[in-house]
Structure formats: C-alpha cells, structure tokens
Amino acid sequence: MSAASIESIDLIDFVVNQGNGVKGLSKLGLETIPQNYIQPPEERLDKNQIVHQESIPIIDVSNWDDPKVVFSISEAAAKWGFFQIINHGIPLEVLENVMEAAHKFFELPSEEKRKYLKENSPTPNVQLKTSFSLAEKVLEWKDFLMHFYFPDDDSVNLWPSVSKDQVLEYVKCTKPVIKKLLQVLLKGLNVKEFDETKESQLMGALIVDLMHYPMCPNPELAAGVGRHADISSITILLQDDVGGLYVRGTKADQWIHVTPVKGALVINIGDMLQIVSNDRYKSIEHRVIVDRSRDRVSVPIFVNPANDAVVGPFQELLDGGEKPVYKGVMFSDYFNFFFSKGPEGKKTLEYAKV
C-alpha cells in the first residue's frame, strides 16, 4: 500500500479494523506519514525548547523510612511532578520480561492482535487500542494493549497468553512499591493515616498498558503522545533505552528529556494526587516523541481511585485552615470527561475546581 492510497477511510480500516495498528503502517516503508498523523506546528516539539542542563531527580529508595527519602520524594512531587526511583526492590528480570512481552505481543500477526480489539476481546478488561482517541483531529503514532486490573478477577485468564504472566508478575511486584510511594507522599503532607478509605481513594484500580511506538519516517512531524497530564493518582512508568519522554520544565515552554536509567521506574504525579493534596503536589504535562530507527516500548501502570471513589482535598489539610481549591468529584466522571476529548495539557483539572 502506497502513501498516496491511504485515505482517511482506508486508514482507519487498515490500522484499526484489520488489526495492523500503527506498527502495520510503519512496516509499509512510507516516506511520509499520512496526513492524519501530522501534528500542527504549534504541537510539535521545538528542539530549542529542550533544556539539556536539567533533569528530573533520581531517588534511591533502598530505605523508605529514611527522612531524606521522604523529603526528596515530597520535594520532587511538589517541584517537578516527576522523579525516577532506583533500588526499589523489583527484580531486573521481572522488568525485562514484561518489556520483552510487550515486544512479543506487537510482533504477533494482525489476525491474532485483532482478537483484542474492544468489539472482539473476550473480556472488556483487556483492549487493543491505537492513538488516544479516533475522534481526535490528529492521531498519535502508537498502539497499546490496555489491561484493567482488579484483584481476584478471573478475566485475567483471558489476557493474551504471550504477555499475561509477565504483566501479572510485574503488577504483583509493583503493588508494594505503589503503596510505599503513596504512604511517603501522604507523610509529606502530614497526613499520617493511609487507611482503607484513602487506599480506595488513591489506588482502588490499576490500568496497565503495554505501549508500542513504532519507528517513524518523520518523527519531527508526529507525536507518540501529545502533551497531557495524567488523571491518575500516580503513574509508574517502565521505559526502554530508546528515550523520547519529555516533561514540562519549571519555566514556561521548556521541556526536559527523561533519560532512561536501567532498572529505574519513572514516577509522575497525576491529577488525583494534585486534587487531594490541594495543589501542594503537581501533575505535570509530558509528551512522547517517536524515533526514526527504533521501536520504543514502555509499560505504564496508572494507579487510579476506585471508579465510585469521590476525590477531593484531604480533610486533614482543610482542618489545618487551608481553603479547598477543588470540590469532590467522582473519579468515573472525571475519567469519562478526560477521555471525551483529546489531550489538552492540564485543562481537565478545571473540571474539579471550586
């Protein structure tokens, strides 16, 4: 199929309905990406905006109880909204296995991958998707397999066999790290108790994505992910060594590359934690730029409130005299509002403001 023959209706059929995904486009040997994937100039990353002198903090969490660790994490969450953690206790083999599983899934024949499209999937808890939303004016250069993880849910047995065990082992090893991170972040707010209510409010549901960003003939025109902030409480990201994740710097119009560190996990604050912290912690815009010569893989775990959880500033902060910046919102309403439109930076937070 030539670039000239890819028109909008054919493109959606080829990429989505036939299960080829963006990976299928990438293999066509196109000299120029289809018009649907070309970002408007104002949404492309200008190399002059990249700040090479700065990087997000890398924090050694081998001793979670060390006051210095608590301070470093809280400071990073307030200033940067992003940091990397090392010595977190998850075996390197587990990390490497889940990355390899992501590659293997996206190397499956299209007829196999097609079985996990929303309308075909044996369970709504695993879905193959492409871009952010097909309703977008400009599509993103990515495919991803989305897993909705709930404890004791038998539908995990219907996840793809090529990646199921590796994803489940990764989640099992990461859950204690998630809980420790949230406990430390709450301690930084002087919120002492991480009870069942707060656990449901902050980590009641997990979404695990196997993200695949195929090599792209025109990376300067495309976006793997447009600029956005996550709506999670926190996001735990495992990335490969290709690079391409950029976060908004502390000054306007500056972007900082998150340099891959072997064995590290990238942590970012989501909107939900910004809301419960009453703006002390910040969710920060970030984006992914694709590569001309290598496929990029990453595995984010979006740590979300339970769907029916009502999320608002912690009462402990308001009891201290702070005025609420946000009202209480049901997470499912916030989630649906976010996905009803394309990425829009941090505009979704306005939905929850008082």
UniProtKB/TrEMBL annotation:
Family: Belongs to the iron/ascorbate-dependent oxidoreductase family.
Pfam annotation, one family: 2OG-FeII_Oxy
Reactions this protein catalyses: (E)-feruloyl-CoA + 2-oxoglutarate + O2 = (E)-6-hydroxyferuloyl-CoA + succinate + CO2
Pathway linked to the protein: Phenylpropanoid metabolism
Keyword NADP carried by entry: no
Positions of the Fe2OG dioxygenase domain: 201-305
Gene Ontology MF annotations: 2-oxoglutarate-dependent dioxygenase activity; metal ion binding
A biological process from GO: coumarin biosynthetic process
Cofactor field: L-ascorbate
Origin superkingdom: Eukaryota
PANTHER family in UniProt: 2OG-FE(II) OXYGENASE FAMILY OXIDOREDUCTASE, OXIDOREDUCTASE, 2OG-FE II OXYGENASE FAMILY PROTEIN
PROSITE patterns cross-referenced by the UniProt entry: FE2OG_OXY
Broad class of enzyme this protein falls into: oxidoreductase
Protein name, as recorded: feruloyl-CoA 6-hydroxylase
InterPro entries: DIOX_N (IPR026992), IPNS-like_FE2OG_OXY (IPR044861), IPNS-like_sf (IPR027443), Oxoglu/Fe-dep_dioxygenase_dom (IPR005123)
Keywords: Dioxygenase, Iron, Metal-binding, Oxidoreductase
Gene3D superfamilies assigned to the protein according to its UniProt record, in alphabetical order: B-lactam Antibiotic, Isopenicillin N Synthase, Chain
